[in-house]
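Lecture notes, unit on protein representations.

Consider one protein chain, 658 amino acids long.
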Amino acid sequence: MGGDVAVDLAAARQDAVHEDLRSGGGTVGLGGQVARGGRAVARGGAPRGGGETTATDRPGPYGRGADRRAVGDELRPRLDALRELIALSRTRLDAETLEDAGRVLEAANERYRLSGEYTVVAIAGATGSGKSSLFNALAGASRSQVGARRPTTCQPVACVWSDGRPGAEGLLDRLGVPAHRRHTPMDEAPELSGLILLDLPDHDSAATENRTQVDRMLELVDAVIWVVDPEKYADAVLHERYLRPLAGYAEVTFVVLNQVDRLPGDATDQVVDDLRRLLDEDGLALGEHGEPGAVVLALSAATGEGVVELRETLGQFVAERGAASRRLMADVDAAAERLRSVYVADSRIGLTERAREEFDDRLAEAVGAVATGRAAERDWLRHAYRAYGSPWSRLNGWRRGRRAEEGHTGSGLTGGGPPGGGLAGAARTGAADPGARAGNPYAGPPRPGRGHVGRQGQYGQVSGVTGVPGPGGGEGAADERAAARPVVEQAVRAVASDAARGLPAPWAQAVCEAASRGAAGLPGALDKVAADAEESLRGGPVVKPRWWKVAAALQGLLFALQVVGVLWLLGAATGLTDTTVWLSALLPAAIGSVGGPVLAWMCRVAARGPARRYGQDAERCLRNAAAGCGRARVLEPVAAELLRYREVRERYAVASGA
């Protein structure tokens, strides 16, 4: 049930999660009143509203059952979210970073396992502040030793208002209170039923073990009553070591100015006002008119002045049965604040569309998509020319192609081409160095002499991203290949940098590592894509346009007319035929000789548009194939890391109460 509540909370605030996490949080207003001798003392020392308000009449910060239920309902989803947060983060964050949050969960589990009918309140203070005297005054009998020797209290003393209910022993065992220092009050005051009151050693004791014991128990109790005296209420140790770091625990904190009987006249109001000012500077919120916050009281344990008001306030506090939840809530707040730097992004996260497009463009550049499209366009024109070209021009082109192959000039796959349209097919390489693919793909250029497979063809620029020169590759192929490897490296670095921008350091590193792992096999995958593209384009267009056949038939007819006309003219010139009909023979010869080149020119003009579209389709297919490789090997792992971060960020938002 707690997990469902957490999910609902995260979904309801999904749009505001990021802004909530980036904000520093609202400020807590300070202010309040101090009860002394049955009257409310304002910060300036005068009663608020001009009248007297007793502790029982004023709307204290406790005794609100609805608020208690709200705290419990909010705490459990936050604990569940914190538990899920730790589980999702174990592979990204070190154990030391998650240690505090783990301790909070352990403390919460242990506290909930013990009795919820008791509220554990510790009395803490400096040497000579009157802690033990106040403890005895609340217990109604001398239960804790009081004396001039310092330190007087060396072990914690407990007083339990059980009212017959079980569960106190487990809590006292957890606190480590010896059995012989566990007491009961003089009278079982019903208003304090369920209270376990502790008298702790002095926090400024000269004995190191006493200070260590105080620090340990302050982490386990539900609430603390800090006792200060008029001489040392501004002690730096108290404020800097305890009150300031524990400012987030204001709702389970009492600050009591003891020994006010030693102050003359209005000096009490002045000291209380100065104490409140110091607490304000410590960041400790003070409760006022029912608002949550620390309670500040002025009393004298020796004379009993103000002790009744403290008992009544404690009675309301204990009756609420919400101190443990409030304490754990503050623990979760503190743990979440310590984890803020590893979960809260500095800016919006995620890959931008521009970064994706630039990544695709660089991969297309690495496989030579543009050059492949142009080569495919020339190849389409070459195949078209073989259909519509005159037999004489095709024969001449075939001879030039044979001479080019014999001279290893790489003028094409099958030779031949339109006049002036020289096919720039160059030899390129194929397979990559296996060692380079198995390890770091950016470890430097491979060494020649290792196993490779060469491919020769006019689509060579689409391949050889990682390979070594193949037969006929030449220095130009090696230069283009060497230029392609840094392009892939730069593309991966750029997209990883864009995805990691603004992320906390551990998650930014995880994104970069995911991109690097995917990039290890990317050059080899691009080689395969390039080889497949070359192979598919090698045979020319799969579907030949119908007009190619029509043009070829017309060229055949014109060639036949040319041959017939020429033979007829030769016959007339040699006397084999009637010399008077040579004019009739000239007409078919002229039509065949002129019509063939004219038809070829017209077809060449008509072929430019389809050839351009064919080349664009080839470029687009290779670009999409390269982008698919990049998406599968780099973008998807990066997106998975970003999704994981979004999940932990949502869990953190719930755990932190954003």
